[in-house]
Amino acid sequence: MGRERINAVTTSFFGRGSIGLLPGELKKRGYRRGLIVTDRFLFEHKAADRVGEQILAAGAEYAVFYLVQPNPTIQVVNDCIQAAKALEVDFLVAVGGGSAIDAAKGMWLFYEHPDTSFDGLRQRFLDIRKRAFKFPKLGQKAKLVAIPTTSGTGSEVTSFSVITDKQNGNIKYPLADYRLTPDVAIIDPQFTRSMPKSIVADTGLDVLTHAIEAYVSVMASDYTDGLALHAIEMVFTYLEKSYNGDPLAREKMHNASCIAGMAFTNAFLGLNHSMAHKLGAECHIPHGRANAILLPYVIKYNATKPTKFASFPKYKEYVADERYAKIARRVGLCSADTPISEAVDCLVKAIRELMTVTERPLCIKDCGVSEAEFMSKVDELSYKAFEDQCTTANPVYPLVSEIKELYREAYYGE
After folding, report:
1. Are strands 61-68 and 33-39 parallel, antiparallel or unpaired?
2. What pLDDT, in 10s, does the model give residues 174-195?
3. Residue 213 exposure: Cα atoms within 13 Å on the Cβ side
4. In 24-178, which residue ranges form alpha helices assigned H by DSSP?
5. With contact defined as beta carbons under 8 Å apart, do 328 and 346 qualify?
6. CA 1 from centroid of its chain's CA atoms
7. DSSP tag of 224
8. CB distance 173 to 77 below 8 Å
9. pLDDT tens for residues 24-73?
10. DSSP classification of residue 73
11. Do residues 14 and 189 make contact, with C-beta atoms less than 8 angstroms apart?
12. Which residues pair with 9 in a beta bridge?
């Protein structure tokens, strides 16, 4: 099987339609043994078995690694690698949310190239296409298939893997290279039907954040704009219905997640994700929830003409405020002649209304984080967010003091 290129959403590895494998298909293609990478919940609720049954029918063997936890750590990745080595697997199947897929990506990389420098991989860069440290070529020893079971991360079609280093300060490292993109992504809504409502809401708001940040990114293009805008429309149309259990809306949100993933893997993200990465790791707030809480404040900040512009050759003039306004008009939140500042306010208001109907907290304080704990961490959070890889593509290049003020506003809900 040839290497599927960036953003390929296909079922070619598993045959046509859903995850149905043709009898003997894997054996005919020379695949002998696979490893399903998932979490304990999905393992106990038989999601891995449903995929495993198809693998067996296709003439291959499989084992399950089910120790992935939220915010996968370097240790979990290493444990998974040991399992893959012991089995000598030639294909991997990530089944789960972003954590399972991120863990599988990290495991895939170091399984094939154990001598690769993690310190080199995590180095920051301005443009993913012009980085100094080269990721090794993947897919020579094993193929990676990603089957998302939540509708949020888009990790099945992205070039990113977020790995947490608990031993050195609970730091989240976003690894980024197009070679981390899975060979095949299978977008099957059957896996989303049993999602708890809280996960539907958190991951759905994560989709919205992905699409909005991709649309205002300094690396946005005509190609990513169409994907981002369509994903935004789908979230505003279907998230509340999906939250209330509508099966068609669940399918649409699953598609929106993948579409937003295709947008931001090419346009990149921004300050919102930089801040959410650090807030989630330090204060134990789910990633999508952290993104949603911060989003109104970051939008207002980015929509104010900056004193210091982002540095990127394609971003010739500041247009973030106009782009936020275009989103509001496109979704029908205001009229075509609404002034830019008012249109931005309409977008912020609509996001908060969407958070309210999906019963999400509107500020950090409401997540159970005490004032004393938060204030003791806010300086470090601000510095770490400034240093995060995603900050480089934000349309406004922030000061650390400005990030701190955004955190403070988001904590109190001001």
Report:
1. parallel
2. 777 888 899 989 998 888 888 8
3. 33
4. 25-28, 40-44, 47-57, 74-87, 98-112, 118-121
5. yes
6. 27
7. H
8. no
9. 667 667 778 889 999 988 888 888 888 888 888 878 888 889 888 888 88
10. B
11. no
12. 185
Q: Strand 184-185 and strand 143-148: pairing?
A: parallel
Angle, vertex CA 296, rays to CA 295 and CA 300, nearest 5: 115
Around 185, how many Cα atoms within 13 Å sit in the side-chain half-sphere? Answer: 30
| Tokens 């079971």 found at | 149
> If pLDDT is split at 50, 70 and 90, which confidence band does 172 have?
low
- Our CA dihedral for 366, 371, 373, 379, rounded to 10 degrees, sits at 110
Burial of 340 (C-beta count, 10 Å sphere; 0-12/13-18/19+): middle
- Phi-psi category of residue 245: left, alpha or beta, with phi > 0 → left and psi -120 to 50 → alpha: left
Residues 4 and 12: beta-carbon distance below 8 Å:
yes
Q: Residues 413, 363: contact at Cβ < 8 Å? A: yes
* 185 C-beta neighbours (distance < 10 Å), count: 28
Return phi, psi of residue 202, to 5°.
-60, -45
Per-residue tokens: 192: 């989303």
The CA-atom distances, in angstroms, between 290 and each of 172, 361, 364, 365, 366 are: 14, 9, 8, 11, 11
DSSP labels, 243-268: HTT-HHHHHHHHHHHHHHHHHHHHH-
Mean residue pLDDT across the chain: 86
Question: Which spans in 189-339 are helix H?
Answer: 197-216, 222-243, 247-267, 271-283, 287-302, 320-331
Instruction: Give the other-Cβ count within 10 Å of 58's Cβ.
Output: 23
Neighbours of 326 (CB within 10 A): 18
Q: Distances in Å between the alpha carbon of 286 and those of 28, 52, 202, 271, 283?
A: 42, 29, 7, 17, 9
Place of tokens 């830019």: 340
Output DSSP code: residue 299: H
Site of tokens 């346009």: 267
Q: Which residue from 405, 367, 202, 399 is spatially nearest to 282, judged by alpha carbons?
A: 367
Give the helix/strand (H/E) hosting 377. helix 371-387
Dihedral pair phi/psi, residue 303, rounded to 5°: -85, 0
Q: How far apart are CA 228 and CA 94, in angstroms?
A: 25
> Inter-axis angle of helices 98-112 and 74-87, to 10 degrees?
60
Helices of type H across 96-163: 98-112, 118-121
Q: What are phi and psi of 390, to 5 degrees?
A: -70, -20
Secondary structure tally for the chain: helices H, strands E: 15, 7
